[in-house]
């Protein structure tokens, strides 16, 4: 199709009034249209396609885990974030309770893979940057549309990365706005992504076949030759001598991605890998002894008064009956211990041994042994995430607890003393701390 204007080129084909475009072409704005500026001998369709292939395989995982996280929040109870998303609402289903690490895996993949892709995205953008400066920017309507879709593609991708990174570092500084922006941004991005893949797939396949990856991985810097001139204008017209082989470039980008993976995976799988998590936003030693695991919001930050969690605290239960229980009365019930993760939407998680009363026992006590939902409220007076609605399967699972103790000791105030919710595969946000009441409803 359209070729870059090289001295030997014959008249390029224009889809627009030709004189206008020829005039444009003769007067490029400063810095535009010069193909001599881009001299890296590594740029070319093959290298771009390698980065593209990696993104083609991994980005759908990041997108899907993002959507699954939205579904896991329980849109059927109006508690998915963002709330009113119009026709972008997803079909909802009962989020499963098994395997217990489902949400941990989902968010680990979403956040860690998302972070690991940053070097690949940057490398991919670097590899095509000459096209940003090509002049005229388009020669026909199809190219104008393609350019606009690229603006959406790159803009939305950088937006998703920036908001995602800020959120996992600063968390709820954004309030609800982060979710809304990240959710809409994801749809804009995926629309442009699908269009881009549809347009570029044949080019990518051809480019990937043009060289052997294995041979490239054996080629030294000295032996590195530019790719043959291409119709897309990626290959330098005046290449410099190579200072890095393609092997070196792939190692640099892959090594960068791996490095990010290594310094973040510990926050998700925990255990001995946790000290490796250099960017751990929730701190390294957040508590003492058995309560030493990440705290999302401290009791002080949540405004929990010590007086309200002392001897006067009661758990108010309602179903077909109403009753109030003291902590001692709860401890006198049959207690159950389960090893379960808290898995935050931010990608960090922590697995602990929780002991408490089964939610289904509490439901039976309230006279509603087969509830369709459980509505939990914290004694916390202000702020987000003070309560949650649990599905029937989440309420009735034998490991679903109103936890009173963790790792053999009482919950610390930061982890929700006197009592908190813990349910297999439930997003961390719904593991309400400092619980004040539970209402069991039947449909
Ligand atoms: N009452 C109350 N419960 C809450 C929260 C909160 O802000 N208030 N934060 C939730 C979030 S977002 C997470 S990830 C978990 C974290 O539990 P942890 O701080 O014990 O690790 O608590 C959840 N329970
Ligand atoms: Mo969270």
Average of the residue pLDDT scores = 91
Number of helices: 10
The gyration radius over C-alpha positions equals 28 Å
- List bound small molecules: ligand MTE, molybdenum atom
- Work out the helicity level: 25-40%
What's the number of structural domains? 2
Cross-sheet strand order for the largest sheet: 2-1-10-5-6
Largest sheet features: 5 strands, mixed
Supply the helix-strand structural class. Answer: alpha+beta
Low-confidence stretches: 1-10
Instruction: Specify the overall morphology.
Output: elongated
The strand count comes to 10
Distance between termini?
A: 62 Å
Characterise this structure.
The protein is 40% helix and 13% strand. The chain is of the alpha+beta class and 443 residues long. It has helices at 18-26, 45-72, 102-132, 141-170, 177-210, 213-216, 246-269, 327-331, 359-365, 392-396, and strands at residues 315-318, 322-325, 335-343, 349-358, 373-378, 387-391, 401-406, 409-410, 420-422, 435-441. Strand 5 and strand 6 form a beta hairpin. The chain has two domains: 13-21 and 28-269, no CATH class; 289-441, Sulfite Oxidase, Chain A, domain 2 (Alpha-Beta Complex). The protein has ten helices and ten strands. The chain is elongated. The strands form two sheets. A five-stranded mixed beta sheet has the order 2-1-10-5-6. The structure holds ligand MTE and molybdenum atom. The ligand Nc1nc2c(c(=O)[nH]1)N[C@H]1C(S)=C(S)[C@@H](COP(=O)(O)O)O[C@H]1N2 binds at residues 294-297, 302, 342, 344, 378, 380, 385-386, 415, 428-429, 431-434.
């Amino acid at each position: 199709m359209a070729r870059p204007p090289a001295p030997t080129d014959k008249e390029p084909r224009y889809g627009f009034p030709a004189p206008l475009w020829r005039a444009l072409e003769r007067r490029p704005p400063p810095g535009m249209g010069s193909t001599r500026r881009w001299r890296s001998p590594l740029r070319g369709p093959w290298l771009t396609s390698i980065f593209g292939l990696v993104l083609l395989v991994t980005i759908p995982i990041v997108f899907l885990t993002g959507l699954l996280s939205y579904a896991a929040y329980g849109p059927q109870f109006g508690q998915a974030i963002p709330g009113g998303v119009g026709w972008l609402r997803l079909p909802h289903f009962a989020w499963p309770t098994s395997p217990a690490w489902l949400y941990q895996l989902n968010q680990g993949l979403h956040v860690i893979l998302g972070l690991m892709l940053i070097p690949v995205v940057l490398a991919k953008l670097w590899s095509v940057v000459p096209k940003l400066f090509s002049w005229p920017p388009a020669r026909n309507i199809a190219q104008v549309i393609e350019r606009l879709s690229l603006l959406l593609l790159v803009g939305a991708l950088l937006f998703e990365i920036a908001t995602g990174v800020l959120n996992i570092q600063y968390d709820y500084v954004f309030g609800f706005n982060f979710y809304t922006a990240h959710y809409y941004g994801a749809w804009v991005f995926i629309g442009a992504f699908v269009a881009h893949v549809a347009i570029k797939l044949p080019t990518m396949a051809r480019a990937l076949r043009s060289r052997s990856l294995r041979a490239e991985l054996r080629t030294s810097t000295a032996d590195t030759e530019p790719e043959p001139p291409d119709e897309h204008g990626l290959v330098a017209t005046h290449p410099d001598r190579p200072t890095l082989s393609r092997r070196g470039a792939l190692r640099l980008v892959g090594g960068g991605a791996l490095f990010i993976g290594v310094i973040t995976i510990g926050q998700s799988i925990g255990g001995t890998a946790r000290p490796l998590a250099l960017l751990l936003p929730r701190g390294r030693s957040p508590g003492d002894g058995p309560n030493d695991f990440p705290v999302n919001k401290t009791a002080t930050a949540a405004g929990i008064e010590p007086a309200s969690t002392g001897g006067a605290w009661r758990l108010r239960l309602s179903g077909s009956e109403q009753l109030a229980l003291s902590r001692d009365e709860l401890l006198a019930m049959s207690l159950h211990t389960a090893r379960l993760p808290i898995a935050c939407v931010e990608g960090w998680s922590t697995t602990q041994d929780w002991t408490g009363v089964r939610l289904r026992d509490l439901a039976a006590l309230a006279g509603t042994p087969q509830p369709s939902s459980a509505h939990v409220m914290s004694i916390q007076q202000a702020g987000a995430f003070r309560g949650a609605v649990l599905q029937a399967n989440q309420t009735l699972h034998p490991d679903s607890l109103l936890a009173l103790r963790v790792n053999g000791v009482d919950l610390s105030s930061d982890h929700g003393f006197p009592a908190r919710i813990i349910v297999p595969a439930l997003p961390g946000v719904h593991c309400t701390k400092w619980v004040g009441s539970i209402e069991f409803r039947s449909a």
